[in-house]
Design brief:
single chain, mainly alpha, about 425 residues
């Protein structure tokens, strides 16, 4: 029984319209509720009035919904296999213009979830991912396990893009728990294995991260998907770097660099150079690390990568007490951020602001650092919360304000314990 009730319900929720308001002058709210649950078939007149009030255009479709659904799914498969963002963005825009109306509610829900994943994939804020996720989250009780898998993974990507690692991890784990109960395409398994390896790496679960990375890498290498293979090698290098094996990390980064140049896949080359720079940081070769950070900046198109390089150069110069260089690069980075601010770069804004304030001995130093602390606390980033409380403690100690120094030192220790998950003295 097809009534388009699922379409009406989705649009009503998306537009934040109550059933009473939508039904007013058309039908009773209880009748509308039955329409939305596909329990009854409304007359063409009522259906037309509801569509008109919701600005839904019922356009004659030239392709069956089975064929169109498969087309959208193929675009999704192409996105996760090749990650050709410009091409996928064009296809997504065409899909959104079509506004296809699915009579089959299962197709409709999966279609909406695929669209959500594609919107997050192209990273276009004009697509209002937040509103879209809010709408879809209100109908999750109607999803099957595959739809729940798509939903949780998209929410995971959303939180990851917002630098909320805790929420992202929870969402991906919910999606992963469903894998055994659904029949996934190989491309989906490889894609989720890759992102799980990345998230597990961020959570310092290195052995599990390596296992998922191996699974993803096997598929991408087998299918000659060089872009995805390069991504895997970068994550693999980071896993070994975190395992205190910089030589192995360097080996995988050089392999990624070779593949990038051989197959003209330069999208991640700037990221490869950043991580090569990081291997030289571990080796305490400041000159070589700065050289690679600058190489990365020269070819980077992503402001996040450029700002990360600038911040890294600031860190290296700070180790050498090169105050002029620290101020030069900090101000350069801050100007770049202010020219194009973004939520996922806010942490770099706070880092650079604190470096300027500290090195210029600004009267707003304590306030600037406290602002940074509040931000990192909000993001549950206890590593940097600890770091900035320790910076305050050291600063006031140098100013011979020992009482204030001790206060901040205690707070630094508190968040170090939270970061390291220490509960008892015996844990030390």
């Amino acid at each position: 029984m097809n009534t388009f009730g699922h379409v009406i319900k989705f649009e009503r929720i998306r537009q934040n319209i109550k059933q009473v308001k939508l039904a007013d002058g058309i039908c009773t709210p209880s009748y509308l509720s039955k329409i939305e649950s596909n329990s009854i078939v409304p007359s063409e007149e009522i259906l037309g009035l509801l569509f008109e009030r919701l600005s839904i255009k019922a356009v004659q479709q030239d392709i069956s919904e089975v064929e169109y659904f498969q087309y959208v799914k193929n675009v999704y498969f192409e996105a996760i296999a090749k990650k050709n963002t410009p091409e996928i963005s064009l296809k997504l825009n065409d899909i959104l213009k079509t506004s296809y109306l699915f009579e089959n509610s299962s197709y409709f829900y999966t279609y909406q979830l695929l669209i959500m994943r594609l919107k997050l994939f192209v990273h276009n804020i004009k697509h209002d991912s937040t509103d879209y996720i809010t709408t879809i989250s209100k109908i999750v009780l109607e999803f099957d396990n595959y739809q729940l898998f798509l939903f949780h993974n998209s929410v995971g990507y959303y939180h990851l893009a917002k630098n909320d690692l805790v929420s992202s991890t929870v969402s991906f784990e919910k999606g992963t728990a469903l894998i055994s109960s659904i029949d996934l395409d190989e491309r989906e398994i490889a894609d989720i294995s890759y992102i799980l390896s990345s998230v597990l790496l961020l959570n310092k679960r290195l052995i599990a991260a390596l296992e998922y990375n191996t699974k993803a890498l096997y598929y991408f290498n087998k299918e000659l998907l060089y872009f995805r293979s390069i991504e895997c090698y970068i994550i693999r290098a980071l896993i070994y770097k975190n395992a205190m094996n910089p030589e192995k990390a360097y080996e995988y980064l050089k392999l990624a660099e070779t593949i990038s140049k051989k197959h003209n896949s330069y999208e991640n080359l700037s990221l490869i150079y950043i991580n090569l720079a990081n291997t030289f940081v571990v080796k305490k070769n400041v000159k070589k690390s700065i050289e690679y950070y600058k190489k990365s900046m020269q070819i980077a198109h992503d402001s996040r990568v450029v700002l990360t390089c600038i911040y890294s150069i600031v860190l290296e110069n700070s180790k050498l007490n090169e105050t002029n260089e620290v101020l030069y690069w900090s101000k350069k980075g801050l100007a770049l951020y202010k020219n194009d601010p973004a939520d996922n770069l806010t942490h770099l804004y706070h880092h650079l602001t604190c470096f300027i304030s500290l090195n210029e001995k600004s009267v707003s130093f304590e306030e600037d650092v406290k602002n940074a602390i509040n931000y990192f606390l909000h993001m549950k980033d206890y590593r940097h919360t600890h770091r900035y409380y320790l910076l305050l403690s050291n600063f006031f100690h140098s100013e011979k304000k020992y009482k204030t120094s001790v206060k901040y030192y205690k707070l630094a220790n508190k968040y170090l314990a939270i970061k390291e998950k220490w509960q008892f003295i015996e844990d030390l």
